[in-house]
Write a structure and sequence with these properties.
alpha+beta; wza like fold; Outer membrane lipoprotein wza fold like; 25% helix; 978 residues; transmembrane
């Protein structure tokens, strides 16, 4: 009953024991088993790497588990145990009997090699196989208990000791499982060091030895070596010795596993083919040059071509380097850029431009008027770029033949948009230095302009047009990063289009005289004479159409018929471009009002009408829940739609948002074009929820004024951008969460409660108290009180640490052990978990006569009505904490005497009594005070610890109070645990 309380008092007793500080732990260093594997190259690796010109590592040493990781769990066998396993001292078996005698127990083979099972004669198990033991056990059980079946399984494998010495990271005796092999023992010793051999490991058993080679395991998956196996089972007393590393050779070049390899002991030189196979083979088939780098008699390095790859020429210290005779490609074309599958193509199957690319090869929205063909100049063999009319190629009009190595680059919309980006326009205006983080395309353009200050790009129509343009801050595309010279080529063949396109700007066109599509500034600026507009987004038929005279939004949207069903009804945007100033403006409108005929707007040439889906709008606008904080991912990663839209459109949507909160089905932010009727806003938010109170909605204007709105009556009220609407819910008759009553009541369980419900009504609903109920010991725990007590403990911990810090700053003599003890108490305060007990009166008879004592219940309250106890507990600093029998009239001294009396660390002057209902009151235990205290059953008498170690601190009183509070918390735990 008092187990939980005694655990806490035991923790208090440990307060006097100093703990090692962090400095001591750091000074001790990390555990030996946590050391990491070496990552720096060994001297041998450094020497071979310098000779080969590439990093080379010694083969095979990453086979072992990292240092400190066990080979297998303690006492666990790898897989199922076979019946031929030989038992010995230390093995443990699970013996199960079923029949006349039934039990299932674990027994170990003792030092005498016997297995002693309850009520059976001992069975000699050492030296028997598991199957033989099962037969012997079955015979013994049948002789003792007829009609009883016996079963035995191996529960724990014995441990054996193996001595591992030589070039290992952790030499010495290794305790390993009886199932362990040579490889397991080496891993337990931390693995073989890079200065040790993997091909001549010695296993010594009973004076005889055998050699273990680990190379076959890693090169062919076999365990067999020349004279021993890597999976050779070990026995107790075996020894493993790892000699130094033997003769080594290295393989470099395009092989699958370049590295440094150890030669078999006693074997002759290896051939180049044997070394190539040891390195996994060549990366690419075909003939290759074989170079041998050997060490001469005087230490010089000798290089020679290996004419016979099957001759044994490679010995200790030699290096083999493979070099393919040819690594170039033949009969290859490439298709790159805005295509579905960029990469190489075969020249024999695509001899012309029309055969290289088709419409099925292109990604959506390719740019057809211009592409670039990279080929070799016949005169100089230099790679040059030439413009290509991709539309003519796809139509079959351009069938020029291609040569080996030609590459066709296809542009997309993003590549063309970048031609009018602000960094490009800045260079065309005269700035000759690109930004520090400029992509290679911008660097190439800057060099071209600097090299030809009087050329067509620096003085032509592009430079004149750039002076009056305002570009976007779009990033450089991957195509201009991979092919830098493509950017100045596209600009030199570009014209400025101000209408008839989605975005006014530079558009390259293949043709002309090689310097551009036109020679004059007048011809380089193209402006369509036919007025047009464009529908974009969530409409049935998006695209560009001719603008008729007097066209309006209502006519263009066909009274709403051109819109999709789930279009966002409260906001659309007209993007208008002024050709003279090259400035865009954004004009919001309400698609709902336009479709209903209550609003309209005239359109102008070049207008782009943006419509949005409701789902897209919700992804752009933050949630309207006031108590919702965006996660780190939501704050750092913008929605996908935001990355596709113009930033000005996204900003406009955010600026015109109305927040809708409270009792609606889909609370959140909803952008509006202008003043919008409240019913339209509520409809977009999914309508009112079932618990909404439409007569008590709260409207807060962007100016800060607030008013109450009746949604059923004020149908003409409107809201505008920046306003906020909260629909309040109706008052709830029931609390959101239930309370629980347990213990000595007739119907314990969880009960829903109404507002203002009391404890007496809950007890009545639970059927009343049982005959043996003890209402004086009722326990009510409350979450709000638990949080308050937790915060109090945290505050006391901070105050204790602050007081300690002030004592140290003032230079007062404070013992180091007292500082450590104070910090331990602060840590205990932070880790203590209070129950949040509230002292209540739970006797229904008392509550009927004194209703002011009847407590109001809160959600998640828990009430425990215990049975009448017959004991009084004595805890704290007593010789024998106990639960003494309750006797009416018995004094505190009597109960303390039954617990053996106080210890020498006790502070009897501060002893207190915790009553069954949770209240605490002091006791008088001194010899001169003969006052008799009434101690009811279920009470706890607590003798606290004397806070004398802290008498040098100003916090002595605080420490005593803290110890008492922890004791009261422990008493509450003990009451709940009854």
């Amino acid at each position: 009953m008092l187990a939980a309380a005694r655990r806490i008092f035991a923790l208090l007793a440990l307060v006097m024991t100093p703990l090692p500080g962090a400095c001591d732990v750091l000074a001790a260093g990390p555990p030996r088993g946590d050391a990491a594997l070496p990552t720096s190259p060994s001297p041998l690796e450094s020497a071979f790497s310098a000779r080969a010109g590439e990093p080379l590592r010694q083969f095979g040493y990453d086979l072992f588990a990292p240092v400190g990781e066990p080979v297998q769990a303690e006492g666990v066998a790898p897989g199922a145990i076979q019946g031929d396993y030989v038992l010995n001292t230390g093995d443990a078996l699970l013996v199960t009997l079923r029949g006349q005698k039934s039990f299932s127990k674990r027994f170990s083979v003792d030092r005498n090699g016997q297995l002693v099972v309850d009520d059976l004669r001992p069975v000699t198990a050492a030296g028997l196989t598991l199957d033989a033991l099962r037969q012997e056990l079955t015979t013994t059980v049948a002789a003792t208990w007829p009609n009883t079946d016996a079963f035995a399984t191996l529960a724990e494998v014995r441990r054996i000791g193996v001595m591992v010495t030589g070039a290992v990271r952790r030499p010495g005796r290794q305790e390993i499982s009886a199932f362990a092999t040579v490889l397991d023992a080496l891993s337990a010793a931390g693995g073989v060091e890079r200065g040790g051999t993997l091909r001549a490991i010695r296993l010594i058993r009973a004076g005889a030895g055998m050699t273990v080679d680990l190379y076959p395991l890693q090169t062919a998956g076999r365990m067999d070596g020349n004279a021993g196996n890597a999976d050779q089972p070990l026995r107790d007393g075996d020894r493993l010795f790892v000699p130094p590393l033997g003769a080594t050779v290295a393989v470099a070049g395009p092989v699958k596993r370049p590295g440094i390899y150890e030669l078999p002991p006693g074997a002759g030189p290896l051939s180049a083919m044997e070394l190539r196979d040891l390195a996994g083979g060549a990366l690419r088939p075909g003939r290759a040059r074989l170079l041998r780098f050997g060490i001469g008699p005087s230490g010089e390095e000798v290089t020679e071509d290996v004419a016979d790859p099957d001759a044994g020429r490679f010995a200790d210290g030699d290096l083999l380097v493979l070099a393919p005779q040819r690594e170039d490609r033949r009969d290859e074309l490439r298709l790159e850029g805005h295509v579905l599958r960029p990469g190489p193509r075969a020249l024999p199957q695509a001899k012309t431009l029309a055969g290289l690319v088709a419409r099925t090869d292109l990604r959506p929205d390719p740019y057809l008027p211009f592409a670039a063909l990279e080929s070799a100049d016949p005169a100089t063999a230099a790679r040059i770029l030439r413009p290509v009319d991709l539309a003519a190629v796809l139509a079959g009009r351009d069938r020029r033949r291609l040569a080996d190595g030609d590459t066709l680059y296809v542009l997309g919309a993003a590549d063309v948009d970048f031609l009018t980006a602000e960094p490009v326009l800045a260079l065309l205006r005269g700035e000759r230095q690109p930004p520090p983080d400029a992509c290679p395309g911008l660097v190439s353009l800057a060099r071209k302009l600097a090299a030809e200050p009087d050329g067509p790009l620096a003085t032509g129509p592009q430079a004149h047009a750039a002076a009056g343009l305002t570009g976007a801050r779009t990033p450089c595309t991957p195509l201009f990063t991979a092919v830098p010279d493509l950017l100045p080529l596209a600009l030199r063949h570009a014209v400025l289009r101000l209408s008839g396109v989605q975005r006014p700007g530079f558009y390259p066109v293949a043709g002309g005289d090689g310097h551009g599509p036109a020679t004059g500034a007048r011809d380089a600026i193209v402006e369509s004479e036919l007025p047009r507009y464009e529908l974009i987004g969530h409409v049935r038929h998006p695209g560009t159409r001719r603008l008729s005279a007097g066209a309006t939004l209502r006519g263009v949207l066909a009274g709403g018929k051109a819109l999709k069903r789930d279009v966002y009804p409260l906001l659309g945007i007209v993007e208008r471009f002024d050709r003279r100033t090259l400035i865009r403006t954004w004009l919001p409108f309400s698609p709902q009002e336009v479709a209903a005929g209550r609003a309209d707007r005239s359109l102008a040439d070049g207008d782009r009408i943006h419509l949005f889906a409701t789902e897209d709008i919700r992804s752009l606008v933050p949630s309207g829940h006031a108590d919702t904080t965006p996660s780190a991912d939501e704050q750092s990663e913008p929605p996908m739609l935001a990355a596709l839209l113009d930033p000005a459109v996204v900003a406009l949507i955010g600026e015109r948002t109305v927040q809708v909160r409270g009792a609606v089905r889909d609370a959140g932010g909803y952008p509006v074009a202008d003043r919008t009727p409240l019913p339209s806003l509520i409809a977009v938010a999914g309508g009112l929820s079932a618990d909404a109170d439409p007569a008590a909605a709260e409207l807060t204007a962007a100016t800060g004024s607030r008013s109450i709105v009746d949604l059923g009556q004020d149908t003409g009220r409107t809201v505008g951008p920046g306003d906020a609407l909260r629909v309040n819910p109706r008052p709830q008759a029931l609390e959101a969460r239930a309370v629980a009553i347990e213990g000595a009541v007739r119907r314990p369980g969880s009960y829903d409660i109404g507002r203002g419900e009391t404890l007496s009504s809950l007890i009545a609903r639970a059927g009343g108290l049982m005959a043996d109920a003890y209402p004086a010991g009722a326990v009510l725990t409350r979450e709000s009180e638990r949080r308050r007590e937790k915060e109090q403990f945290q505050r006391q911990a901070r105050e204790l640490e602050r007081t300690l810090a002030l004592e140290v700053e003032k230079g007062e003599p404070v013992k180091a052990e007292n500082v450590a003890l104070a910090r331990q108490i602060a840590a205990q305060l932070r880790g203590a978990e209070p129950l949040g007990r509230v002292v209540v009166e739970a006797d229904p008879a008392v509550l009927r006569t004194r209703p002011e004592l009847d407590p109001l219940l809160e959600p998640d309250d828990r009430i425990v009505i215990p049975k009448r106890p017959l004991t009084v507990a004595v805890s704290g600093e007593v010789l024998h904490p106990t639960a003494a029998q309750f006797i009416s009239g018995k004094s505190a001294e009597d109960y303390l005497g039954e617990a053996g009396g106080p210890t020498r660390d006790a502070d009897t002057s501060r002893s207190f009594l915790i009553l069954p209902d949770g209240r605490a009151r002091p006791l008088a235990l001194s010899s001169w005070n003969h006052r008799v205290d009434v101690i009811p059953p279920g009470s706890i008498l607590v003798v606290p610890r004397d806070p004398r170690p802290f008498d040098a601190l100003d916090a002595t009183k605080a420490v005593g109070s803290i110890l008492s509070q922890l004791a009261i918390t422990a008493a509450s735990v003990s009451v709940i645990a009854r």
